[in-house]
Each structure stands twice: as C-alpha cells, then as structure tokens.
C-alpha cells in the first residue's frame, strides 16, 4: 500500500464517520431527504463563494455553501408553513430550482470558474491526496483530510455535549420543549452540522454519494437495533467498513471510488434488509405468515366452540364452511392437534379440555379487547407456532 | 434575438423546432402524470426514480454495447421500476419510513450507476461518449425519433388515463373505498406508477437525472393552486409543463452557454412562485388580503358591540354619546367610526355618535347569525 492509498482510505473513513453521525438523526427524524436537498442546493452557494474568494479551498467558500444549505431548509419549511403544498413537494420544488441556478451560473461563467458540475456531483476522491496542506513550508497532509477531520471533531464534540438533548428532541419533541430544550435551536443546529458536513464531504465524494453515506449506514443499523447509542456505533462501523472495502473494489475495477463505496453501502444494506433478525424482510414475512396461521387457528377453534352438532364438526364440512383451501386447512388442523387443542374421532373434530380453556380465554380477549390478556395466552398454553 | 426572429427560426431551423416540440411534449406528459404523483404524496418518487434509472442505462449499454437510445431507455425503465417497487416493499415490510427508503434507493442506485459508468469509461473498446448526457441532460441531442417516441408515449398515457379516469381518481382520494368497491387497487396502482416511471425515463435525456423531479413536480404544484378539481388540475399542469418547455427552450436558445434543462426548471419554478402568490383562492396575496379584511371587520363589530353596551342602558337607543367615551376602548379609530357610519349603523355628529335602529339590531343579533362574509 502506497502512501496516497493510505491517505485516500483515511479520508474516506473520516468522511464516512462524519456523515454517519448526523445521518442517524436525520433518519430518525424522518428528514433523510433534507440531506439530498442540501447536497444539491449548496451549488449556487459554492459558485457565489467562488466569485467572491476566487479560491476553491477557502474556508469562506465552505461557510457560504453551508449557509445556502440552511437557507434551503428555511425555504422548505416556509413553503410547508403556507400549507399550499405537502412537505415532500416543498423539498422537491426548492432544491432543483437552486441547483439550476448553480448550473446556469457555472455555465455562464465557464471560463472563469474552475468548477465542473460533474466534479460537484460526483467528486473525485482519487485526486484528494494531491491537494496538500502546507504549514510554514512543511507538508502536513492532504487538505481535505484536515478539513473533514476538523468537521468530524466538531460533530463529535457537539454530539457528546448535546447527546441527551438531541435524543429527547428526536423522540419526543413535546417533552423536550416542556423540559426547556428549544427544539428549534436543536433542529437548526443539526441542520447546520449536516449542511457543513455535506459541503465538506462533497468535494471528496460528490453531492449524491454524500446522501448515501448519510442515510445508508443509519438505515442499515436502524434495522438491527432500536437503541440510539448502538445505532450510532453500528452506523459508524458500517460507514467505515464500506469506505475501506469500497476503496479496494474501486481499485480492483479501476472505477469511481465514491461509486463503489456507495455500492458497498448498498450491498451491506441489502444483506441486512433481507436477513436482519427481527426487522429484516425474511423475518417479517415469516412472522406475518405465522400470525396469519395463528389467527386462522383461533377462528377454527371458535367455530368448533360454537357448534355442538356432529355434522357441523365434520372435517369435510369445516373445509366448506370456513372456506379454506385444502393445504391451509390441513396445516391449521395439524397445528391444533399438535397442541392438543382438538381430538379427531372418525373425521369429527372436538375440542379438548385445553382447547376449551383456550377458546374461552380467547373469547374473553375478543370481547374486552385488552392487549395484556393475549400476551400470556401463547405462553400459558405452550403453543407451537405455525 | 427578437421574438419575431425566434418564431422564424422555430419554423425554419430544424433542430430548434424539434427541441421545442420535444420539450413541450415532455413538459405536458410530466405535468399530467406529475399531478397524480403530487396528489399521492409521492412528489419525491420522481427524484428517486430518475436517479435509480442510471444503473439501468449503464447495464443496458454493457449488455448490448450499443448506444441506441431506445435500448438505453428500456434499461432505465427496468431499473427505475425495480427501484420503485423496492421503495414500496421497504416501507411496507420494514419500519423504515418512506423518506429513508427514497433516499436509500436514490443514492445507492445512483452510486452503483456511477460505478458502472466509470467502469465503462475505462473499457478499451468503449464508444461510450455521451452516456453521461443522461446525468445533466442535453436537449440539443434530441432528434426526431426521440420526439416521436415521446409523442407516442404521451398519447398512450393519455388514452390509458381517459380509460381509467374514474379508477385513478377514486384511488387517489379514497384507497380503502376503492378496495371495498371491488376494484383491483394493486393493478391501478401499478399502472399509474408505471406511467410515472415511463415519463421520468423519457425526460432523462432532455433535462437529466437531477432536474427530472422538478419537471414532474413543479407544473403539478402550480396547477394545484388554481383549482380543486382533478380534471382541471391535470389539464392545467400539462399546459404549464408544455409552456415551461417552450419558454425554457426559447430562453436558452437566445443565449450562449445556457443549458436547456436548468432553464426549463427555472421557468417552471417561476410558474410555481406566481401561482403561490397570485392564485385567487389559495394564493398568499389574496389570503393575506382576506385575512386583513376579516380583521378589520372584526374590529368594526367589536366597536359596535361596545357602543351597543352603552346604548342599551338608555331609553332611547339613538341617544347621542360623546366620542370621548370611546377613547378607552381599543379598536376604536376615526376610520372605523366612518366605516360604521357608511354601513348606517351609527350617525356621527361632530363630537358625538348615536346608534341607529339598524345598528342596534345588528349588534343585538350579531352572535345569533353565521358569518355573512362568506
């Protein structure tokens, strides 16, 4: 591994971590798409900043661009407040307009601006190590590493200082304002941090991949845990993992580093999405099937409970009456037999004592509709699940 | 370039004519289908799908090696549809919210598309130049066959929309009711979504991935302000969209270095802004005026009520009182007295006022009747 390679990976990791932290809060606050809006609409800010400073690396540029990001948020909120359109429409109206202004500004001044729309959207991590920071003639490392490092330090400090405020205002705005934490200050604080992070990161990875780095790790870890601290740690880990593996995939394919980092993020998310223990797709589909059968079982038992005549309890009749398909009927009856809820004599089904108890408690639940009654139901009767 | 010059060019210059027609048709179909997207609260779906279409374009190129725009668009359509259904599945089966699902599909698909695009660019045999026009769109590359394709798709969308008009409409406003009526909601839903994706994919070449969402949203959001009827809204949105296309193309043609996509989006944004401010029933301007009028009206009635309280204690309701005694009452002003006199609720006489019979009755029954303002 050569020196620039290590530096590129280091930058990628720092960017990933710096994006993952505000990303968690954006996802939890259902504002993921604000990051998309900000990442596009900072373009005019960047261009105007460049006209003023004539230097692509000036800190003023970043401040101006971040400020445009905050203006975007304010504009979106203002349009929402008029009630003329829905929230998401407001986002969709604001950022393309601002982005267009940026693109036109660049195109009209193409000769003066060494700013390329491609570069802004896509970024190029591979060139980042060539832009060195010199302190009194000494080469101390790539500029973007220092910049992102600084942003990361600020983000982490603010996170540690305001963790409980952020937490409470994310999950319960009402309570947090009752306790005296201004939700507005926290909201705009978070927006400012996101804005600054997006601006800092997008030189390296581009506007759209910033969105991937912000949302994907957070969404992935949200599928695995519902503990905020664990979610933060997991997001950071996912971000770092994807950054490093993404770099090597890009190296192997000789393709865009940012693109392959977000592809890695996508793969990690896909795996978790499918296989996450309780919230993944497979677990959810399986659980829904189970619940379906459990409800069917209950319907079946209640039906038996209602009818004492033998012909109503004949197996064939049941199939007709409840209108189930053969396979479903069989699995439900089997489940009931396995749980000793029913006995079958000569094709006639009758409830056992246990079945009777179960049905009466279930009926009780249906009448009162109190959740706590059904909680113990399954345990009390040692039901095998479907 | 003057306007007459422009019109001359429009009919003589083949390229400009094609592009203008293309953007107009595109604007119309986007506005039409965008209305449904906006009303279904899927405004940002367009943004996600347009980004999600990118890997499809790259894969289609990798497989066929051809730059035929129809094949590339087919690839875009497929990957756009995959993205849409994944968003749908994610919000339905997991606890991730729709904003996260949209953001994920948008950024991850786009990232993957970029990976493929850069991979293609490094291929030795690549005649790939021009693939990246889908990123920002180049209306200038529109040729007649593209425009014909757009017109065909628009006509198709129009026919389907007219055929299924009542189904689309009822699903839009009351999905549960639609289901109980026995309509196949899934099928209707998929049909609408399919056409929205189709419109987006068509627009990619012209306005590009990033700005496509605005093409879909802006005309519909503008049209929404002028009407509460779906049919009028769809029609207006199509008109706004078409005009954005025509004006945008004209403006960008009149200047150097002005790409068409962003200009069209800005024109559409101006339509939105204008509608937000000047729409008679919902617009900010008229709402503010109405608000002011109501406030003034309330003030007048408050004054009248106060006068009524004084006049009530006298035998003769029209007994004159000094204006001075109103001084302690907030809401009283010279202009409001004059306004009251105009309504013949009071009579003014230099330093004094007196309630008229009409004013007395008005005050007496004020709380019994509904607002006569509406």
CATH fold label of the largest domain in chain A: ABC transporter involved in vitamin B12 uptake, BtuC
The residue ranges of chain B in which pLDDT falls below 50 over 5 or more consecutive positions are: none
Q: What strand line-up does the widest sheet of chain A have?
A: 1-2
Oligomer: heterodimer
Structural class computed from helices and strand pairing of chain B = mainly alpha
Secondary-structure element order of chain B, as H and E?
Answer: HHHHHHHHHHHHHEHEEH
Number of helices of chain A: 18
Distance separating the two termini of chain A: 54 Å
Task: Give the chain pair forming the largest contact, with residue counts.
Answer: A-B, 63 and 60 residues
What structural category arises from helix and sheet content of chain A?
mainly alpha
Describe this structure in words.
The complex is a heterodimer of chains A (386) and B (374). In chain A, 75% of the residues lie in helices and 4% in strands. Chain A has two domains: 3-279, ABC transporter involved in vitamin B12 uptake, BtuC, CATH 1.10.3470.10; 285-380, Arc Repressor Mutant, subunit A (Orthogonal Bundle), CATH 1.10.10. Chain A has 18 helices and four strands. In chain A, the strands form two sheets. In chain A, strands 1-2 form a two-stranded antiparallel sheet. Chain A is elongated. By secondary structure, chain A is mainly alpha-helical. In chain A, helix 6 (143-161) packs antiparallel against helix 9 (183-205) and helix 13 crosses helix 15 (326-338). With 374 residues, chain B is mostly helical. Chain B has 15 helices and three strands. Chain B has helices spanning 3-12, 14-39, 45-64, 69-93, 98-121, 133-136, 144-163, 165-173, 175-180, 185-224, 230-254, 260-278, 284-311, 334-342, 357-364, and strands at 321-322, 346-349, 352-355. Chain B has a three-stranded antiparallel β-sheet. The longest helix of chain B is centred in the middle third of the chain and has 40 residues, at 185-224. Chain B starts with a helix and ends in a 10-residue tail after the last helix. The mean pLDDT of chain B is 83. At the A-B interface, helix 2, helix 4, helix 5, helix 10 and helix 12 of A face helix 3, helix 4, helix 5, helix 10 and helix 12 of B.
């Amino acid at each position: 591994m050569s020196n620039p390679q290590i530096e590129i990976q280091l930058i990628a990791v720092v960017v990933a971590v710096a994006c993952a932290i505000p990303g968690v809060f954006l996802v939890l606050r259902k504002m993921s798409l604000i990051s998309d809006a900000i990442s596009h609409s900072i373009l005019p800010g960047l261009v105007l900043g460049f006209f003023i400073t004539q230097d692509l690396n000036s800190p003023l540029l970043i401040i101006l661009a971040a400020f445009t990001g905050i203006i975007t948020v304010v504009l979106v909120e203002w349009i929402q407040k008029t009630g003329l359109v829905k929230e998401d429409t407001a986002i969709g109206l604001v950022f393309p307009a601002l982005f267009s202004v940026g693109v036109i500004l660049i195109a009209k001044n193409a000769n003066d601006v060494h700013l390329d729309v491609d570069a802004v959207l896509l970024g190029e991590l591979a060139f980042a190590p060539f832009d060195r920071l010199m302190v009194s003639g000494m080469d101390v490392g790539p500029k973007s590493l220092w910049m992102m490092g600084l942003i990361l330090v600020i983000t982490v400090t603010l996170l540690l200082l305001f963790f409980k405020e952020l937490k409470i205002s994310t999950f319960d705005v009402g309570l947090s304002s009752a306790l005296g934490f201004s939700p507005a200050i926290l909201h705009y604080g978070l927006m400012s941090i996101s804005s600054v992070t997006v601006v800092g990161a997008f030189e390296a990875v581009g506007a759209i991949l910033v969105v991937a780095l912000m949302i994907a790790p957070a969404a992935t870890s949200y599928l695995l845990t519902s503990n905020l601290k664990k979610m933060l740690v997991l997001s950071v880990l996912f971000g770092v993992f994807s950054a490093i593996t993404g770099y090597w995939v890009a190296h192997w394919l000789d393709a865009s580093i940012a693109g392959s980092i977000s592809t890695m993020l996508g793969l990690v998310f896909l795996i978790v999405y499918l296989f996450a223990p309780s919230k993944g797709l497979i677990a959810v589909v399986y659980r829904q099937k189970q619940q379906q059968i459990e409800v069917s079982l209950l319907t079946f038992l209640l039906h038996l409970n209602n009818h004492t005549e033998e012909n109503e309890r004949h197996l064939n009749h049941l199939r007709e009456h409840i209108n189930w398909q053969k396979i479903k009927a069989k699995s439900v009856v089997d489940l009931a037999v396995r749980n000793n809820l029913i006995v079958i004599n000569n094709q006639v089904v009758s409830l056992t004592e246990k079945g009777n108890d179960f049905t009466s408690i279930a009926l009780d639940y249906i009448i009162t509709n109190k959740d706590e009654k059904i909680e113990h139901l399954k345990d009390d009767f040692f039901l095998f699940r479907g | 370039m003057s306007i007459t010059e422009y019109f001359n060019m429009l009919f003589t210059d083949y390229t400009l004519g094609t592009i203008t027609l293309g953007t107009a048709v595109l604007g119309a179909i986007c506005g039409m289908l965008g209305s449904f997207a906006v009303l279904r609260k899927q405004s940002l779906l367009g943004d996600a799908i347009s980004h999600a279409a990118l890997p499809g374009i790259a894969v289609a190129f990798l497989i066929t090696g051809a730059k035929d725009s129809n094949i590339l668009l087919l690839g875009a359509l497929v990957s756009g549809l995959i993205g849409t259904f994944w968003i749908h599945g994610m919000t339905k089966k997991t606890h991730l919210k729709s904003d996260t699902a949209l953001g994920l599909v948008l950024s991850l698909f786009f990232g993957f598309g970029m990976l493929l695009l850069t991979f293609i660019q490094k291929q030795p045999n690549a005649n790939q130049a021009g693939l990246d026009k889908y990123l920002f769109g180049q209306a200038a590359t529109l040729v007649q066959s593209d425009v014909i394709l757009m017109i065909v798709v628009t006509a198709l969308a129009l026919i389907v929309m007219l055929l299924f008009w009542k189904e689309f409409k009822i699903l839009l406003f009351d999905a549960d009711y639609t289901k109980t009526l026995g309509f196949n909601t899934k099928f209707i839903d998929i049909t609408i979504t399919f056409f929205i994706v189709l419109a987006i994919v068509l627009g990619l070449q012209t306005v590009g991935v990033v700005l496509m969402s605005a093409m879909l949203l802006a005309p519909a959001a503008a049209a929404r302000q002028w009407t509460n009827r779906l049919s009028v809204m769809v029609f207006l949105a199509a008109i706004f969209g078409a005009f954005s296309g025509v004006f945008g193309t004209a403006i960008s043609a009149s200047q150097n270095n002005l790409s068409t996509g962003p200009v069209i989006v800005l024109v559409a944004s101006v339509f939105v802004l204008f509608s937000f401010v000047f729409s008679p029933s919902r617009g900010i301007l008229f709402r503010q005026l109405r608000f002011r009028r109501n406030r003034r009206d309330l003030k007048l009635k408050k004054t009248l009520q106060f006068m009524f309280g004084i006049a009530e204690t006298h035998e003769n309701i029209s007994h004159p009182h000094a204006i001075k005694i109103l001084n302690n009452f907030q809401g009283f002003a010279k202009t409001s007295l004059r306004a009251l006199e105009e309504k013949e609720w009071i009579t003014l006489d230099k330093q004094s006022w007196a309630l008229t019979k009409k004013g007395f009755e008005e005050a007496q029954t004020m709380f019994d009747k509904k607002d006569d303002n509406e």
